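lol forgot to send this yesterday, sorry. struct tokens for the thing we talked abt
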């Protein structure tokens, strides 16, 4: 999917956001883990009682998403509030990746969900092209316009029409670490890629493996690549590669893969080595970093703000035992990569439009924000809703960025390339993790798969 120009501004703005995030995370790590912020200027709290929803007694709705575990449980609390307000009955339908294929089978069987949460702008475009997705009503669009910056509105549009409500966002430029391990190793939070390598060596020398990588889930590997590439090659190249206007055989891709190999290919730097990492799913990559006291399986794990959900499954406390720093700058500027999940209507009805409107409101997002491990691009959500200072800092930085962010590159791609387990970019980077010396071969495979997917639009 083409990156929308209104969401992609200047490199300087990205630098400003990265600096804000770095400074504020440092302050958050030193502060209380559960003290509410005092200076909340959001209008979300005052608007929460003004949302108008219809009475839907007797209406049944289905909502599909790939969310599992605690994330699914928390979202069900949001749906329960919608049921309470409207009288509708809402059922959560667990979906599988790639969700477009899942939806295709449901539609072929005559049983599409009323709403699905799509994790890729490319998937929204495909759903519209196939005639599956339904545009939002004027009333729902008004709610979106009240609460979202133009950039977040635009990535939910296809052909100028609003199809998606970005209910959930992610800051995908964070590295989480075991504070006790860092303390024992005398390691410091890095600001540059070279600093990261120095920190990793200090951790390794202390007897702990530096990195945990959830290589069984290929999307974690695309996120690693995107942060390195954005910082090293710059936003213009990032946009070109996201749109496949330059090939994956470009020298800038070679440089990024070579840089990644300094971590992925360094003996003893990845927990379980490549074979172990490729059998480690994302949740386990987090929990194994924060269990085992000061002798965990790894000291650091890269991923977004949602890591907190999985940290919550351990005894570690965010801000004390589990700390975080911005993804280090590889080039002149630290990267800021965002992702998100958009609610899209597949069965147009009064109930579906009302639920989409509710998900576009601060009321819905505030419920899940309070439960932790969640980030909303909705600017009307009060910052005080987030349960700890680290999360409040990340949320504030996201809203402060306005339209100045880069959306996850693989999520902009056709799903066949950027969003399918065992295929395309996910599989190619898994192969690269297994053999980080094969830079040229990896580039060739990436280009072959990208050309096929972009050419077909699938």
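and heres what i got for the seq, position by position
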């Amino acid at each position: 999917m083409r990156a929308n120009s209104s969401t992609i501004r200047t490199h300087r703005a990205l630098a400003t956001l990265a600096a804000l995030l770095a400074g504020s995370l440092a302050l958050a790590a030193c502060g209380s883990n559960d003290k509410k912020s005092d200076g909340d200027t959001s209008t979300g709290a005052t608007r929460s009682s003004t949302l108008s929803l219809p009475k839907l007694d007797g209406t049944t709705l289905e909502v599909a998403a790939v969310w599992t575990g605690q994330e699914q449980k928390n979202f069900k609390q949001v749906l329960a509030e919608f049921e309470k307000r409207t009288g509708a009955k809402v059922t959560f339908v667990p979906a599988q990746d790639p969700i477009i294929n899942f939806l295709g089978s449901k539609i072929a069987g005559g049983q599409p969900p009323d709403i699905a949460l799509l994790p890729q702008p490319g998937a929204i475009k495909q759903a519209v092209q196939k005639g599956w997705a339904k545009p939002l009503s004027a009333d729902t669009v008004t709610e979106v316009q009240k609460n979202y910056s133009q950039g977040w509105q635009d990535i939910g549009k296809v052909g100028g029409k609003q199809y998606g409500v970005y209910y959930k966002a992610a800051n995908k430029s964070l590295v989480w670490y075991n504070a006790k391990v860092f303390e024992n190793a005398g390691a410091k939070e890095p600001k540059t890629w070279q600093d990261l390598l120095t920190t990793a060596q200090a951790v390794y020398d202390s007897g702990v493996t530096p990195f945990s990588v959830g290589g069984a889930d290929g999307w974690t590997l695309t996120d690693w690549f995107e942060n390195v590439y954005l910082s090293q090659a710059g936003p213009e190249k990032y946009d070109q590669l996201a749109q496949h206007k330059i090939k994956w055989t470009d020298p800038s891709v070679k440089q990024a893969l070579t840089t990644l190999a300094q971590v992925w290919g360094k003996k003893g730097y990845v927990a379980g080595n490549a074979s172990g990492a490729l059998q480690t799913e994302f949740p386990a990559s987090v929990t194994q970093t924060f269990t085992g006291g000061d002798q965990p399986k790894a000291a650091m794990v890269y991923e977004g703000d949602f890591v907190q959900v999985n940290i919550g499954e351990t005894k570690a406390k965010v801000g004390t035992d589990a700390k975080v720093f911005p993804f280090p700058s590889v080039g002149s500027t630290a990267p800021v990569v965002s992702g998100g999940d958009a609610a899209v209507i597949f069965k147009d009805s009064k109930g579906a439009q009302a639920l989409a409107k509710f998900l576009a409101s601060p009321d819905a997002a505030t419920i899940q924000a309070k439960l932790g491990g969640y980030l909303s691009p909705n600017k009307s959500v009060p910052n005080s809703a987030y349960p700890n200072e680290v999360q409040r800092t990340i949320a504030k930085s996201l809203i402060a960025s306005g339209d100045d962010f880069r959306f996850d590159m693989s999520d902009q791609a056709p799903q066949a390339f950027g969003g399918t387990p065992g295929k395309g970019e996910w599989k190619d980077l898994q192969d690269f993790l297994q053999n980080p010396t094969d830079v040229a071969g990896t580039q060739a495979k990436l280009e072959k798969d990208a050309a096929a997917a972009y050419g077909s639009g699938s």
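The chain has two domains: 44-171+338-407, 175-335. anyway ping me if u want another try
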